[in-house]
Amino acid sequence: MMTKSRTANTTFTLERIYDAPPARVFAAWADPAAKAVWFIGPGEWKEHARSNDFVVGGTERLTGVWEDGTRTTFVGHYHDIVPNERIVYAYDVLFNDERLSVSLATVELEPVTAGTRLVFTEHLVCLDGYEDPGAQSRISGTEAHLDRLGKYVQQ
Asked: Tell me: the pLDDT tens digits for 113-147?
């Protein structure tokens, strides 16, 4: 008996202004040690493994475990990198090795008087029963990442 596959598609955009130059904001994405400071899960999630090859064609992988034993994995692939201006990557989110979603994300950096305007746009595809109505879970997680990034670059 075959089950019908389903998808749910959502696109969202978030913006931030950081009191730091674009080169510093870009470096926080490009340097694996810097990214490990701000690109993390919430307190009840514990990092298990991390790698990041920040080059066009490179892969980033982050695995962690929740208190209930659920393992989550982020696997990203960099498609376009323009230093201090743009990062485009696709990524999968897996729970216990089951792919829940696939996304295409774009990070745009623009110098402004106050420092850097960051525009983050994500095209999210939820797969086969994974529900995130209006992408609220993904949006709140991304907002938390961008807020931590802001604190990091403004130190």
From this structure: 989 999 999 999 999 877 777 788 899 999 999 99
Cut 0.70: pTM above it:
yes
Distance from C-alpha of 66 to C-alpha of 73, rounded to nearest angstrom: 11
Query: Which amino acid is located at 140 in the chain?
Result: S
The dihedral built from the CA positions of residue 20, 25, 26 and 30, taken in this order, carries a sign that is: positive
Tokens describing residue 36: 């490990």
Burial classification of residue 87, based on how many CB atoms lie within 10 Å of its CB (0-12 exposed, 13-18 middle, 19 or more buried): buried
Radius of gyration of the chain (CA): 16
Structure tokens at 82: 């323009």
- Architecture of the domain whose range is 19-153: 2-Layer Sandwich (3.30)
Strands 59-66 and 71-82: antiparallel
Query: CA-CA distance, 124 to 56, in Å (whole number)?
Result: 21
Residue 145, φ and ψ in degrees, nearest 5: -60, -50
142-152 residue pLDDT tens: 999 999 999 99
